[in-house]
Design brief:
The structure holds two protein chains of two kinds. Chain A is elongated. By secondary structure, chain A is an all-alpha fold. Chain A has a domain of about 55 residues: Arc Repressor Mutant, subunit A, CATH 1.10.10. Chain A has four helices and no strands. Chain B has two domains: about 55 residues, no CATH class; about 160 residues, Phosphorylase Kinase, domain 1 (2-Layer Sandwich), CATH 3.30.200. Helices cover about 50% and strands about 20% of the residues of chain B. Chain B contains eleven helices and seven strands. In chain B, strands 1-2-3-4-7-6-5 form a seven-stranded antiparallel beta sheet, with helices on both faces. In chain B, a hairpin with a 3-residue loop joins strand 6 and strand 7. In chain B, helix 7 packs antiparallel against helix 8. Classes of the chains: A mainly alpha, B alpha+beta. Chains A and B meet through helix 1, helix 2, helix 3 and helix 4 of A and helix 2, helix 4, helix 5, helix 6 and helix 7 of B.
């Protein structure tokens, strides 16, 4: 028999938000900025380059490194939460 | 695998994700991903990141456009969605530019109320402090009337702190609109013409926050939500200098 523990949706949402915020905070400023401009704000690479004053190549490398790092941190965060619990 | 597909690299994958590729290249990457499940999985994780960002932060996206973005995008058409959503950058990027423990603290602040408040306070500061002839609606020589009027409109007791000991004199104040509800701005000026504003609005969210800091370029703000009112103290001052003034304001306004 499977037993499921019900967690209120609002509570898990809040945890997820804190997780993401905490993970973002661990990213270098230039990488976080790029993730937010392109990922959240939906600016094109060209627009993001113009806003930050960085060349296109730099925009792409910051995106690449930022996404990779965010993934690593988020994975790490989840593992940490489980350990603590 | 054809020659073009063989050249698909990291940049192509991100460009694929962000819709930056031509339809032909898009098709090549799609085919390549079908043959490379590990990479497809990694891309799916990145796509999830973007979805998470939207889920977490879209609520603050309806804020005014930060001037830095206005300057960067001047002279070209932006879609309404971008104009609206670019605003979140003010609050989110702010923490990024400034760095340090407090920005982390701020990023961890899940209070949408506080985040929106700070953004509106900074926005109002930028708009009105540059006014030379009409910086305020009601000048400081009618302070009693100003305070009574704003108290009535905001539905909570508004007070104009006395900051003369800190080198600031009250210039006056004005009534503002925040998403259909009244808000207000009190403006102060130092002897050298530096202006500081207090942005305030009623707080019926039931939410109260600690004293928090945010910086957006050269502008800094401290903000907090208390029982009946929400405040943002805004100035073009470094954090430490604004902190002294903000603490004094906080002390005087304590319920």
């Amino acid at each position: 028999m499977e037993v499921e523990v019900a967690v209120p949706a609002a509570q898990t949402d809040r945890l997820a938000l804190r997780d993401l915020a905490a993970a973002l905070a661990q990213l270098p400023d230039d990488q976080r900025e790029m993730l937010l401009l392109v990922g959240l704000e939906g600016f094109s690479y060209r627009e993001a380059a113009r806003i930050t004053g960085a060349p296109m190549g730099t925009v792409m490398s910051r995106l690449s490194r930022g996404r990779q790092r965010l993934r690593q941190v988020m994975d790490g965060e989840i593992a940490q939460l489980r350990r603590v619990k | 695998m054809n020659a073009a597909a063989a050249r698909i690299g990291e940049d192509d994958l991100h460009a694929f994700l962000d819709g930056e590729l031509s339809p032909e290249r898009q098709a090549e990457v799609t085919a390549w991903l079908a043959a490379n499940p590990d990479e497809a999985e990694r891309l799916a994780a990145y796509r999830q990141q973007i979805a998470d960002l939207h889920e977490s932060y879209d609520a603050v996206a309806a804020e005014p456009l930060p001037p830095r973005l206005v300057a960067a995008t001047q002279g070209r058409a932006m879609s309404g969605r971008k104009l609206l959503s670019a605003a979140a950058a003010l609050v989110l990027l702010a923490a990024g530019f400034a760095g340090g423990w407090w920005s982390k603290d701020w990023l961890l602040d899940t209070s949408r109320q506080g985040v929106a408040l700070a953004a509106r306070g900074v926005s109002a500061h930028r708009v009105f402090t540059v006014e030379v002839r009409h910086p305020v609606e009601v000048a400081a020589d009618q302070e009693a009337h100003l305070v009574k009027w704003l108290t009535k409109r905001l539905g909570a007791r508004v007070r104009a702190p006395d900051l003369s000991a800190m080198g600031y004199r009250l210039v006056g104040g004005r009534l503002l609109a925040e998403a259909g509800t009244p808000a207000a701005q009190l403006m102060y000026e130092s002897a050298d013409g530096g202006r500081m504003t207090i942005y305030l609005r009623g707080n019926n969210s039931g939410e109260e926050t600690a004293f928090r800091f945010v910086a957006a370029g050269d502008i800094s703000a401290f903000y907090w939500l208390e029982e009946s009112l929400a405040y943002a103290i805004v100035a073009e001052l470094p954090r430490t200098e604004l902190l002294t003034v903000a603490h004094e304001i906080y002390r005087q306004l304590e319920p």
